[in-house]
Design goal:
The complex is a heterodimer of chains A (292) and B (325). Chain A is an alpha+beta fold. Chain A folds into two domains: 5-82, Gyrase A, domain 2, CATH 3.30.1360; 88-289, Cyclophilin-like (Cyclophilin), CATH 2.40.100. Chain A has helices at 24-40, 66-80, 101-109, 121-128, 134-141, 245-257, 271-276, 278-289, and strands at residues 5-9, 13-17, 45-50, 54-59, 86-98, 146-151, 158-162, 186-190, 193-196, 206-210, 237-242, 264-270. In chain A, a hairpin with a 6-residue loop joins strand 6 and strand 7. Chain B is of the alpha+beta class and 325 residues long. Chain B folds into two domains: 2-170, no CATH class; 177-313, Cyclophilin, CATH 2.40.100. Chain B contains four helices and 20 strands. Classes of the chains: A alpha+beta (292), B alpha+beta (325). Chains A and B meet through strand 1, strand 2, strand 3 and strand 4 of A and strand 15, strand 18, strand 19 and helix 4 of B.
């Protein structure tokens, strides 16, 4: 990786591009810098936003001069260096009804905006990624866990990047023209990223399924919203679990009754162990889910 | 004390100084798009300058006051009326119980602010009363106001009185054509030389798609990005990058066609290259642009941005001393 590219976003922001292309290395470095910046509690810094292969800082230039802010970020970059990066984070399992009736219906409504009018989003994505069947594709999508390198676009929406070698990354183009509608809690995919639509709305990602578990609730009704109205934070790890319709319906009932819960388990991710043994690394993460 | 909504207007919402600190999970700043007009309105009625007020866009609401109050109207040039009788802008005045507030159309400017002594007393969410519509958060039930809503008003502080007026040198004007100052950003170099030239040369027209999330501009020449092999994870269009965070005021040009400037309800990130960012001192001025108003983009550097910011802050200081106590 060459050096970080920095740029002022006028007088109140600095954007830092760690790498032009998406990689776990770039995400990790950005997270490490953002964590260190947060730890320093520098006066005038109002927003610290890690993203996929970059990060964004907003500051008050009346409190800290832009040149001083920039120098601080470069100094943190040097301090973080290319050390063997580890991230102490948490993992959660999220149930997904893949190939569900609602996203398939939505996909049909917007077929004229899609690359392939003869297949559903998931059939198309399975085919262009070389999977023999939708079932194999679902097994891959719900097999290895995913990092949340970025939360945003709208409130609480996690971007997801799968913890597999690049040759195994699922890639899919966005719709030719964005849809004006996407069901709430759709699992979508565009480029090399999956995403969970936290609210209903426009979208251009291929739609693979839907989760019954709310991930953003301004009314904070379920137990896991007790502390905050959004579930995901940058750095979280998600493992999808493919469920059947009966299980989906059962969870929806529990959500409506206010009894459904999600469990987060602590886990440490090491970039080095991922490079040495990607499959073993993914297995280690999933084991943490079950409390091993 | 409460205010009843008779007609909501086009898009009227409760807004205050904003909700910083949650952009990393996609919850934007929100708050009044024209922060100066919000401060003026609040100081005129004796509130804290960042208190919650109503922000009306393009078509103002009709409101019924259920109890006497001191109010002030600032921002866009739209004459307020009480029971049909004109009242001044930028000056506090008294309303009685059952008085009806209406407005003439907005002759200039796009956002009017209605402050009430005591402030709009909706619940504080994540440190702010501002409405964030996409996330159904804050404000009145997480949305813009609607017919029949009854908006609670807080207890007025002692200092509220009618007849406080803003000195004319502190009243901003809202020209239909203006210059917006832009500091080139991370992906400015992705534009072709010709695109850089036309971006700053052309006169851009505010599109109907101009709201609290962002302002879209059109009628300039289409812009090209330099050809390249797209990096892994970026989209296929040359205006795409690996999705990253968007600054407030940042300028993106999806497909090279229509520049979009993000405002205080910004989507926090995405896959379009940011070519530059509008300076903080010009963000209030964007808020007052109506569809079909004209803008030219002017390239400035950090020194110019900080100088403009200092002038903006200086006007705030004069405002505070003029309306102190």
């Amino acid at each position: 990786m060459s050096g970080i590219r920095y740029s002022f976003g006028a007088d109140e922001h600095i954007s830092a591009e760690i790498g032009e292309e998406m990689s776990l290395e770039a995400f990790f470095k950005g997270m490490a810098i953002c964590k260190e910046l947060e730890k320093r509690r520098i006066g005038g810094v109002t927003e610290i936003c890690p993203s996929n292969a970059s990060y964004l800082v907003r500051f008050d230039p009346d409190v800290i001069h832009p040149d001083k802010m920039m120098a601080t970020l470069k100094e943190i970059e040097a301090q973080v260096g290319d050390a063997d990066l580890e991230l102490a984070t948490r993992i959660v399992e999220l149930p997904v009804l893949y190939n569900d009736p609602w996203t398939n219906e939505t996909g049909q409504r917007f077929r004229d905006r899609h690359q392939d009018s003869n297949s559903s989003d998931i059939e198309y994505s399975a085919r262009i990624n070389g999977y023999k069947s939708v079932e194999d594709f679902i097994a891959a999508h719900s097999g290895a866990p995913w990092f949340v390198p970025m939360v945003g676009f709208v409130a609480g929406l996690p971007w997801l990047y799968q913890i597999v070698e690049r040759s195994k990354q699922i890639e899919a183009p966005k719709y030719l023209r964005p849809r004006t509608d996407t069901p709430k809690l759709t699992i979508g995919h565009g480029g090399c990223f999956s995403a969970i639509y936290s609210v209903r709305g426009a979208g251009g990602y291929q739609m693979f399924g839907i989760t019954p578990a709310p991930i953003y609730d301004p009314e904070q009704k379920l137990p896991y919203f007790k502390d905050f109205l959004a579930v995901f934070r940058p750095g979280d790890i998600v493992k999808f679990k493919s469920i059947l319709r009966a299980e989906y319906d059962r969870i929806i009932q529990a959500v409506d009754a206010g009894t459904f819960n999600l469990t987060f388990r602590p886990v440490t991710f090491s970039l080095k162990s991922f490079h040495t043994d990607p499959a073993g690394c993914a297995r280690h993460l999933v084991e943490a889910l079950h409390g091993y | 004390m409460a205010i009843e909504v008779i007609k909501p207007g086009l898009a009227t919402s409760v807004q205050d100084a904003g909700r910083p600190g949650y952009y990393n999970i996609g919850i934007p700043l929100s708050g009044a798009l024209d922060q100066y007009a919000l401060r003026v309105a609040n100081l005129l009625v004796g509130n804290e300058e960042g208190a919650a007020a109503l922000e009306a866009s393009l078509l103002a609401p009709e409101l019924l006051f259920r109890a006497p109050a001191i109010i002030a109207v600032t921002g866009a040039e739209a004459t307020p009326k009480i029971n049909g009788g004109a009242r001044p802008r930028n000056e506090s005045f008294a309303v009685r119980a059952d008085d009806r507030l209406t407005f003439d159309f907005m002759k200039a400017g796009a956002r009017a602010y209605i402050a009430v002594a005591g402030g709009i007393d909706v619940p504080v969410r994540l440190g702010s009363r501002s409405t964030y519509g996409l996330g159904a958060l804050g404000g009145f039930s997480g949305r813009k106001i609607a017919v029949g809503d009854v908006l609670p008003v807080g207890a007025a502080k002692g200092g509220a009185r009618a007849g406080r007026a803003l000195a004319s040198d502190l009243v901003p004007s809202y020209p239909k054509s203006l210059e917006l100052r832009v500091v080139p950003g991370l992906y400015f170099g992705r534009l072709t030389d010709e695109a850089v030239k036309t971006f700053f040369e052309d006169t851009w027209t505010v599109a109907p798609e101009a709201d609290r999330i962002g302002y879209r501009y059109r009628k300039g020449r289409a812009m090209s990005f330099r050809e390249r092999k797209q990096p892994f994870g970026a989209g296929s269009d040359p205006s795409n990058i690996v999705d990253s965070g968007y600054p407030y005021g940042s300028v993106q040009v999806p497909g090279g066609l229509e520049p979009i400037i993000l405002h205080r309800d910004a989507v926090s990130g995405g896959g379009y290259a940011i070519i530059g960012t509008v300076i903080s001192a010009d963000m209030d001025r964007i808020a007052q642009m109506q569809p079909n108003n004209l803008a030219r983009f002017v390239q400035v550097d950090m020194d110019a941005a900080l100088k403009a910011r200092a002038e903006y802050k200086n006007r705030d200081a004069r405002l505070r001393s003029a309306l102190a106590g």
